[in-house]
Amino acid sequence: MNLLLDTAAFLWLCAGTEQLSSAAASALADQANTVSVSAVTAWEIGLKAARGKLKLPAPVETWFPAMIQHHRLDLLAIEAATAIASTRLPAVHADPFDRLLVATACERGLWLITPDTLIAKYPNVQTLW
Question: Is the pTM of this model over 0.90?
């Protein structure tokens, strides 16, 4: 199973798995699964940190790549086709970060690990929580 972490799941993974659901923690622990994070997550975390809504133990430009490496995650770029596809999704979610994550998961055939129940309402997206 190929997985994509949403921003909350990525932050919880980095903080320890206590806030992750048992299904999410199990999927992340399964070495057969490929686990990815989108560059959109770096953008969202950077904005939250800059606004003082998120405190990180180090500057985001060093913390984020260190967490990607530490957890052995694949980092996915935001492709133009994915950005365009996100604009064509139904109006289920207004959050542009979530829309990009949904489009990424759909286009790449990834299961999106997210606690956000709205995301599961999108057609063709597979979610796990």
Answer: yes
